[in-house]
Amino acid sequence: MNNTTDKKPIFKRGWFWAIVIIIVIGIGVAASSKDNEPQKVGDSSGNSEQASNTNQDFAVGDVIGIDGQEISVVSVERDYTTGDEFTQPSSGKEYVKVSLKIQNKSNDTKSFNALNWEMESSDGVIDDYMKAVLAQADDSLGSGDLATGGTKNGSIVFEVPAGDTGLKLHFKPSLWSNKETIIKL
User: Which of the ends of the chain has fewer CB neighbours closer than 10 A, N or C?
Assistant: First the structure.
C-alpha cells in the first residue's frame, strides 16, 4: 500500500495565481502613476508652458496635462438657474455651473465622466454633482470615451454654500488613480 498523499504543485493552486495577478496589477499601477502627475501646459490664451513643479495651484483657464489628457475649466457661473421653477438649491445654497474642456492627447482611447469631478467648499466638505443632479445644464458633461485627438466640452452643476469664495474643483482621472488635481475657482 502506498502512503504518499497527492499534493498539487504550488502553481496549480488557485490562491497562488490570485496573488501573482494582484502583484502584477500593483506593479503596473505603480509604474503608470508616475506619468499621471498633473502639469500646467498652458492657459486659455493659448500660451504653452511646461511645468517644472507638479504641486502647483491651478486656476480657471489653466490647461492641465494629466494622464494623456489636457483638461481646463473654461468658465464658472455662480448662482446658476435652470429656468425650471421646481429645481431650486436648498436653503442657504446656490448652484454653480462649471464648464470644462477635455482633450485626449494620448494614443489611447480615454474615458471621461462627470463622476470624476467633485467640489470642495471652503469648510472642507467635498461633494459630487449628484446633490444637484436635477439642475444639470443642457450641455452636461455626461460620460463617454474620447478617441485620440478627441475633444469634449461640457458642464457640471454643483450645489454649494451661497457666496462661498473658497471653492475648489477636484479631478481624478480614473477610479484606479490615486492622483488628484485641484483647481481653485
Answer: N
Distances in whole angstroms, Cα of residue 73 to Cα of each of 102, 138, 164: 9, 17, 18
- Please state, as a whole number, how many other Cβ atoms lie within 10 Å of the Cβ of residue 91: 6
Give residue-wise pLDDT tens across range 7-60.
655 555 666 666 767 776 766 555 554 455 666 766 655 555 443 334 468 999
Cell of 159: 450645489
Segment 158-165 shows an average pLDDT of: 96
Side chain identity, residue 140: S
Write out the three cell numbers for 78: 455662480
For the chain, helix, strand, coil in percent to 5 are 20, 35, 45
Long-range contacts of 114-118 (CB under 8 A, 24+ apart): 114/140, 114/141, 114/142, 114/143, 114/154, 114/156, 115/143, 116/171, 116/172, 116/173, 116/174, 117/141, 117/156, 117/169, 117/170, 117/171, 118/169, 118/170
> How far apart are the C-alpha atoms of 173 and 176, rounded to whole Å?
8
Q: What is the residue whose three cell numbers read 469631478?
A: 117
C-alpha cell at 45: 490664451
